Amino acid sequence: MSVGRTRAVSLLGLEGALVEVEADIGPGLPAFVIIGLPDASLGEARDRVRSAATNAGCALPPRKLTVNLSPASLPKHGSSFDLAIAVAALAASGLVSARSVEQAVHLGELGLDGRVRPVDGVLPAVLAARRAGVATVVVPADAVDEASLVPGIAVVGVASLREAAIRHGADLAPEPVETIRRARSAEQARDVSDLGDVIGNSDAVEALVVAAAGGHHLLMVGPPGAGKSMLAARLPGILPDLDVDEALEVSSVRSLSGRPVGGELERRPPFEDPHHTSSAAAMVGGGSSVIRPGAVTRASRGVLFLDEAPEFSQSVLDCLRQPLESGQVVIHRARAVARFPARFQLVAAANPCPCGQHGTRDGDCVCTPIQRRRYHAKLSGPLVDRIDIQLQVARISSAQFRLAETAEVVTTAAARARVEEARHRSAARLAGTPWRLNAEVSGTWLRSPGRRLPLSATRPIDRALESGALTMRGYDRVLKVAWTLADLDGADVPGHGHVARALGLRRSL
What we know:
By secondary structure, the chain is α/β, with parallel strands linked by helices.
């Protein structure tokens, strides 16, 4: 008997590390021991693997079987190691080719009947294997389409352990089995309504286009029925398609979250709208043994919409401050640190007061000044200071409604064309830098010699900074919005008018 070796992938966040799976069959009483820092579900693989091998017609010998997962210091969790442990044990017993098993990465959970069950996180695991230089990966048959999204690596799908053994040289007759398919949950259909459905509120529509063009965060305050949710739902429609790397990232997050990933990359930006009762872990991610992504990660490269934002817990809202600044979520645990992407575009909506009638033409507000202050205090100053565009949205009157019916309608297609053209201009200007959108640019870079705007252009924000109406962070964010306005207007450099409009978009509340 020799030692059988193969490889698997241990995921921590979206980052994967190759794990060498070694199996040794030696003298002693029959036993199955797994070492190398496995968690509870991985430790139970000994019973799944032995029963699966017996029922697949390639039973393991009644000897002492020791499986080592190396590096031993790396925490490992989940049932995705089952297939790798099984084929390494078969290689150690001489039933399959040890050389063939050693050259591939194996991912999959085993059922007691020997069939291979699909697991979460196949796409990021295959990405990690390709980056490590692996040429072949063996996955459950149901996950072949998902794994094939990664270019440059051969994907082999197996429906059972017996089929995997035959592929590695076992002298067994093929036996057809029914492939285990993952249950596809019916996801809510995305709103495909057009931006042209928005009646009136031309200022709000223009602010939405500015937010999309520069990737800016947006806060809308207005009474119920003003159209805040309607506007937010149409923001993903005017965003450009994702490129290949972004689409792979978004699909990897979907795979890790247990959501279905089809045979084609999803090129449209995601849209997440968590309920206001969400916890901090649901918002930013977390977990004890298995760290799962939260809403901010599922919204990465897309839009995170917080409807009725002041109804969220203040501690949950304050959790957004670090992702808004850095573009990633870092979750620390006792034995691991997981990093998730969180480069989302925040859109928050709020009423002017708890009853929603403060400042309306015909509504009677029943809230006291203390209640209104307490309501808006949920949106802390540091959080609001990180939001570039702060917009007042009002209900339209009957006169505005009739006027809007005869006005030119801004459609989603026309708005997206403007956004794409503005993003092309900003990408050309930012070529050679680590940024692509104006919202990502460092304020220090914008204010550096050679890029600093003349005093005649920055006079409005200089006065606001001097009077204390703007913080230094707010100053930089107004500059970023001004550059976006210039890109939309086709100007090479923002002028006084662009800076003044950008300041107005930030201080319209």
